Amino acid sequence: MSSPPAHEIIIVPAPGQPGRDELKQQCYDVRIDVFHHEQGFPLDTEIDEYDEEATHILLRLVPSLKPIGTIRCVKMKNYYKLTRLAVLKDYRKYRFGRALVQSLHDYVKAEAKASGLAGSDTVSVVAHSQIPGEEFDEDGAPHQKMVARLSLSD
Known about the structure:
Layout: E1 7-11, H1 20-38, E2 55-61, E3 67-75, E4 80-87, H2 96-115, E5 122-129, E6 136-138, E7 141-151
Parallel strand pairs: 4-5
Antiparallel strand pairs: 1-2, 2-3, 3-4, 5-7, 6-7
């Protein structure tokens, strides 16, 4: 595997903060390229009721700032939900998906500690994957539930 191109991973500003709309749109553009154009999911399922309040994480090349990947974090009542992980096809060979998931885990741990959610030593991140296993349908594709319990003590 060749070395990955120079890149950065940023947290899109929170709702109401400057720059959010433009950066969130870049996340949407990556998701639409991957899920609609490449994988054939209906366009009307791509943006949903969680997007406005969700935390979006954006992967982009530097210095061009070309968006090439994204992941979304939705805070639920007792856990965080990892959703909409997408990396443009030409960049998947660099394992950027792993870097995006790690960035989301780092964000969740910091957010849980800062918000006082950390009444215990761990916080849960729930994800739905297309990895084979016990399946359920989400947007017309088989998925499997996965749970990561992240330590808050480090």
